[in-house]
Design brief:
Blueprint: E1 2-7, H1 9-32, H2 38-63, H3 76-107, E2 118-124, H4 129-132, H5 137-148, E3 154-160, E4 164-172, H6 176-186, H7 197-209, E5 219-224, H8 232-240, E6 252-257, H9 263-275, E7 279-282, H10 294-303, H11 321-345, H12 351-375, H13 384-396, E8 401-404
Parallel strand pairs: 2-3, 2-5, 5-6, 6-7
Antiparallel strand pairs: 1-8, 3-4
């Protein structure tokens, strides 16, 4: 068996395309799956990565064969058809297991869960809401939530378009009379004007920071249907306060109300990620009376949140060295699993040395880079999507120098090939 020193440029190109697809489509996938448990999000995400990678290998081989299947074995197409479903299912299982382990490691022994001091609802009443929410479902949702707020708990309400209007300052709800007076004001809401989400959020942070205690100061519940400019650095700073003390943070649980393909959905997801809140996506086509409890569900989603393997985490145990190490090792498992899957998928054990060992090293380096970006870089800038981009590139990029059985390749034979790191 002789080794050619040239890389398989075609597969390299396809793997680069695969990395781009995984990043952009993966971001959209995480957004669409936001209402699912994290364990299912990670499982579906890794299965999706496996589908894209196998498609890259298959297309490259069909366009210009690299003879990846050893001589005497079944055809490449038959191998793909039979093996792909098994490995996609295996990827799904690996995603489930790694996220489960991560959640258990981070949450075990951390009883320091939020004692809710209160919530401040920030609701969009801009003109676009008049056609996204013609039945004023968001108003009904606010009324329902106000009715459910316990007496003695902090509560505030800000409505906004191009300006923010405080209907109730963030303070303790002491009597039912206060409650019903506020409900009457809410029922008078009409949609109009532009959208300035950033100003409304800054107003909300300032109000919550004004309360005497800073121990679990409160949760912001944000509802919007639009895309508005955002200063991410200021948002993170206002939300996180002292990053070394997660009890001082003010998370924003963001609810996007509208078309999931709208850029505003990505913006709201990033608001939740940047502040450590939960994200909910409500599609226009699915809106009915069942969504009237959307603020209560957004609060519940935050209360029951778990650390996400692919995202930054701000809750109890966020600064734990054990959490960071476990995130690195479990993400490295994803890359190593992909390497093993490629070896077995191509039914070529000769790849074990040439491909698998470099793959282990690259996977560890990619996982370390991911953890560094989300945990070590500027604490008031959200780099979660950058980290996922780096990780997607690392786990999708395949360098495939070709091996052949000799100088003369008879047509109809399948010479052995192998996949490895960069050939010197």
């Amino acid at each position: 068996m002789t080794k050619k020193s040239t890389l398989n440029i075609l597969l390299l190109l396809f793997s680069l395309v695969a990395a781009v697809v995984v990043f952009f489509a993966g971001e959209g996938l995480l957004r669409l799956l936001s209402s699912m448990p994290f364990i299912l999000q990670c499982a579906i995400y890794l299965a999706f990565v496996m589908v894209i990678l196998f498609a890259a290998i298959f297309l490259s081989e069909k366009i210009s064969t690299g003879y990846y299947i050893p001589r005497g074995r079944i055809s490449f197409s038959s191998t793909c058809a039979k093996a792909a479903p098994w490995f996609i299912a295996a990827a799904f299982a690996v995603g489930l297991i790694t996220q489960l382990i991560y959640g258990v490691i981070v949450t075990t022994g951390t009883r320091d869960t939020p004692n809710f001091r209160g919530t401040l609802v920030v609701s969009d009443i801009s003109g676009s809401m008049s056609w996204n929410d013609p039945q004023y479902i968001s108003v009904d949702a606010m009324v329902e939530y106000i009715e459910a707020v316990p007496l003695g708990e902090y509560f505030g309400l800000i409505i906004y378009n191009h300006v923010s209007i405080t209907l109730r300052e963030y303070s303790i709800l002491e009597t039912d009379e206060e409650r019903y007076e506020l409900i009457e004001e809410v029922r008078q809401i009409h949609y109009n004007g532009g959208t300035n989400t950033y100003a409304a959020l800054m107003d909300a942070f300032a109000q919550i920071r004004n309360i005497p205690e800073d121990d679990w100061p409160g949760l912001i519940l944000l509802l919007s249907d639009g895309d508005a400019p955002m200063n991410w650095n200021s948002l993170a700073y206002a939300s996180r306060g002292d990053r070394s003390n997660h009890r001082n943070a003010i998370p924003v649980s963001a609810i996007f109300f509208g078309d999931p393909n709208h850029s505003g959905a990505d913006k709201m997801l990033r608001v939740a990620e940047t502040t450590g809140g939960a994200f909910s996506l409500l599609e226009l086509s699915a809106v009915d009376d069942g969504f009237e409890d959307l603020f209560s569900r957004a609060r519940a989603d935050f209360e029951h949140r778990r650390p996400h393997l692919l995202m930054e985490y701000f809750g109890p145990g966020s600064n734990s060295v054990l959490r960071i190490i476990s995130q690195i090792l479990l993400l490295a498992v994803w890359g190593i699993f992909i390497g093993v899957a490629v070896v077995v998928f191509l039914n070529n054990m000769r790849l074990k040395t040439a491909f698998l060992l470099p793959r282990v090293i690259v996977s560890l380096l990619a996982a370390v880079a991911f953890a560094f970006v989300v945990n070590i870089t500027n604490p008031y800038l959200d780099f979660g999507f950058v980290a996922r981009g780096i990780f997607a590139l690392a786990i999708c990029l395949l360098y495939l120098p070709t091996y052949s059985w000799g100088e003369n390749i008879r047509e109809g034979h399948n010479p052995a090939a192998s996949i490895g790191g960069v050939v010197r």
